[in-house]
Amino acid sequence: MEKHRRITLGTGGWQWPAGLVVLYALPALLPWRANTLPTQMLALSLILAAALIVLSEIDRQKFRLPDAITIPLVLAGILAAAIFGRGIVWHIFSAGLGLTFIVLADQAYRALRGFSGIGLGDAKLFAASGAWLGAEGLPTALLWSCASALLVLVLVHALGQKVGARSAIPFGSFLAFGTWLVWCLGQPQ
Q1: How is the chain split into domains, by residue range?
Q2: Angle, CA 43 vertex, CA 41 and CA 13 arms, to 5°
């Protein structure tokens, strides 16, 4: 069986993490958003951004998303829902829905291709997305994630890396970014 070929993103060093910080800061600093953000929301947003940036970098380097960050991030999302009176039960359900969706997608992929296409770390990260965004934010977060992953794959291919059906990408980095965009920009109306 052919081994998975990992797609490398960035060169390492400080440039990549610094670029992530800038990438995450841009949507949060939109003038209309910054003026309407209460202090509590700003503090929670900084916690979410920091966790997502760290997860993105770990996934980029190791193709793993550690439980030590993803599970507390789920709990923090439920706590954030409680702080803002958004319905704890709904956000717990949404976390379960995010986890279940990725697990089922992976099982379907495994049945078709004979190997796993996404890891449980990604499922736990998508559970965190559900906890923070609610179930209504999951489709948009997934859309942003897939679109940004495809864009990066096109750019990587254009820069000369071989991209194929057995190429592995750190999809958790894209799930994190999609979650952040929905957190900052909200749902399309």
Answers
A1: 16-185
A2: 125
Rounded Cα–Cα distance for residues 172 and 81 (Å) = 23
C-beta of residue 95 within 8 angstroms of C-beta of residue 130: yes
Which residues contact residue 154 at a Cβ distance below 8 angstroms, ignoring those fewer than 6 apart?
A: none
Q: How confident is the model at residue 1 (pLDDT cuts 50, 70, 90)?
A: very low
Angstrom distance (rounded) from CA 129 to CA 178:
9
Output the CA torsion sign for 95, 98, 104, 109.
Answer: negative
Residue 113 near residue 166, CB atoms below 8 Å: no
Q: Distance of alpha carbon 89 from its chain centroid, rounded? A: 22
pLDDT value of position 31: 46
Query: Which residue, among 115, 178, 185, has the nearest Cα to 149 in the 3D structure?
Result: 178
| CA 120 centroid distance within chain | 13
Helix (H), strand (E) at residue 34 = helix 31-34
Which tens digit of pLDDT belongs to each residue from 54-91?
999 899 889 999 999 999 999 999 999 999 888 999 99
Q: Is 167 helix (H, G, I), strand (E, B) or coil?
A: strand
Task: For residue 5, give the 3-state DSSP assignment.
Answer: strand
